[in-house]
Amino acid sequence: MKKVVLLICLGLLGGCSSVEKVLSPEPWVLPYERGELAQPIMQFSRNPLSDKFRQHVFDTREGARGAGVTQGGGCGCN
Amino acid sequence: MALVSLKVVVVVVIKRSLVLLVLSVLLNPAAAETLPEDMLQLMYHSYDGGGVEVNGPALLVRKEFKDQFSVNAGYYQDSISGASPDVIASASAYSETRDEFSLGVDALLGNSLVSLGYINSEEDDYEGNNFSFGISQSFFAQMTTMSLGYTVGQDTVKRVDNDFAEDIDRYQFSVGLTQVLTSTMLMNLTAEGITEEGYLSNPYRSKRVFGTFAGPEIYPRTRTSTAFAVRLKKLLWGDDAASFSYRYFDDSWDIVSHTLELGFTRTLNNRSVADVVYRYYDQSGASFFSSDFQGLFQFMASDKELSTYQSHTIGLNLTYELFNDYLYGFDRGELGFAYDFRMNEYEDYFAPNSNSTEPYEFDANVFNINLSLFY
Q1: Which range marks the domain in which residue B272 is found?
Q2: pLDDT per residue as tens digits for the range B316-361
Q3: How many Cβ pairs closer than 8 A exist between chain A and B?
Q4: Which of B69, B95, B105, B117 is most enclosed, with most CB atoms within 10 A?
Q5: Do residue B368 and residue A50 have CB atoms under 8 angstroms apart?
Q6: Are residues A44 and B247, on separate chains, in Cβ contact within 8 Å?
């Protein structure tokens, strides 16, 4: 019985450790490994003015709006 | 049911994100944001499709000062001529100009990037004013960036031929998270809620009942929408990249939409980059839309943007580096060209004054040419 309780306690401790790892993970891509991510072609929006125009064209001619890469105002949609 | 569960999960995620962001702003001294690059951008844009032509210039300037602030100012003009079939059916074609002015400032406060912005948009029959606030913060060894945005909009809808004037109040709230997944892959998640109250129709457009035009459309005076987007960017072999994005949208008018976008970026040489993009969009129609009502109802709209339809867009972007050495006060210069071909296919919208028994469809050519100067 004592062995069973001991095994359960060890299991719980192991579980706690795993939970702690999940809740506070270590960064898995270190700063020196992120050089390629800094390339311009990896930006979600490389050209703010051009992307704003594109977004405006879609927003004024579609029923959906929001969650885009840029923000704007006004209508111009007749 | 699944949708309700999804929304509950998203609301919980947003709430936890807010707590995490606030805590990280207060407790994380190691994280740091950067200001946008100083630049001057000039653009000419053009849209031609569905009987409407829109074109005009645009300008954006950014300048950093005191290593802590970056101000930006922009101008954007739409010169509109013609009118879409649903407007031209009950009003005449016309031309008008929309002028948009924007001012903004980004500030590094502590370890956060705080943004304030104002946009004013003026037409003869429409005025829009937007005030926006945003904050972003990197944490988790700068692998994660969270952002919050809040925008208040106050618009006035008018007619050019009489004293008609009605207001719209708009509130937008967005949460974004960008995550480094691997050394060659990024992910962005964005959720945005928008609620509007006021005159949400077009004062020139009429509803159609039993085949004839029967006075102004009748819209609900409120609209609330939510949109969730996921974007992935992956660096491929060499200097090429692939992108994927999906957006889910729904609103209180029963419009549900899916937007899918696939992109491929190819570095042609050390000066030229090309992007090819395919975008698919579909939406279900609003609950009170009909191209031709067979009775009178509380809300009635015949706007094709509220109908059921799909669109396919094929796009090509080209960027060419003009110089990367000091020239006339600038460090670097780029020339850009972007072209979209859009095919729009409606399922339950039929163009008025048309003898066709087929639903309406049209193609559009959209392009812009732009010059970016960095300093």
Answers
A1: 2-32+104-374
A2: 999 999 999 998 899 999 999 999 999 999 999 998 877 778 999 9
A3: 177
A4: B117
A5: yes
A6: no
